[in-house]
Amino acid sequence: MQTGETSQVLVHVGANVHRFRNAANLSQVALADRAGISRRTIIKLESGEANISLTGLDHLADALGVTFVDLVAAPAAAHADIRELAWEGRPGSAAVLLASVPAAKDAQLWAWVLEPGDRYDAEPDPEGWSELLMVSEGSIRVEQERGDVILVAGEHLAFGTAQQYSYVNDGDYRARFTRIVVS
């Protein structure tokens, strides 16, 4: 996650991490060990100051026994209508978590905008996770281990995310796409 306009979601993440950690009777050190992140990151998250990747939040959620959405949503938000800004790149590039519904574990609906020249580099998810992408405006290149795929408006892609992957806007125009993450 980036800072700036995402400060409100960082407040939610901080409060939620603190609440779930206390409910699980975990120290900051124990949570950091379980999640594979530093204690310093936990301290900064709980104070609303940390910059952590989306995958890092996934690891924290797993360590706490909750979903990614439980960590980023306002405590009173219904999972059917979340609308939390979770990532920003260059001015205008953003990812907004729109909603989540139960799946085997979790399913999330995202609205993404990538400005020309911007990219998002993801860390691998656990085995069994997948994404469905649908481009509604412009084009994106999805870099993945089995090769790059270029998607233009109206095209879609489904792929497993237990690999390094990136979204890249090589074009001259803004790209908008919908992303569904399923675990």
From TrEMBL:
Q: Where are the transmembrane segments?
A: none
Among SUPFAM superfamilies, the record links this protein to:
lambda repressor-like DNA-binding domains (SSF47413), RmlC-like cupins (SSF51182)
CDD domains xrefs = cupin_XRE_C, HTH_XRE
Q: HTH cro/C1-type domain: which residues?
A: 17-71
Is Ligase one of the keywords UniProt gives this record? no
Molecular-function GO terms, alphabetical: DNA binding; DNA-binding transcription factor activity
Leader peptide range in chain numbering? none
Keyword DNA-binding on entry = yes
Question: Which keywords has UniProt assigned to this entry?
Answer: DNA-binding, Transcription, Transcription regulation
Q: Could you name the Gene Ontology cellular component terms for this entry? A: cytosol
Q: Entry's PANTHER family? A: HTH-TYPE TRANSCRIPTIONAL REGULATOR (PTHR46797), HTH-TYPE TRANSCRIPTIONAL REGULATOR SUTR (PTHR46797:SF23)
Q: What is this protein called?
A: Transcriptional regulator, XRE family with cupin sensor
Can you name the source organism? Salinibacterium xinjiangense
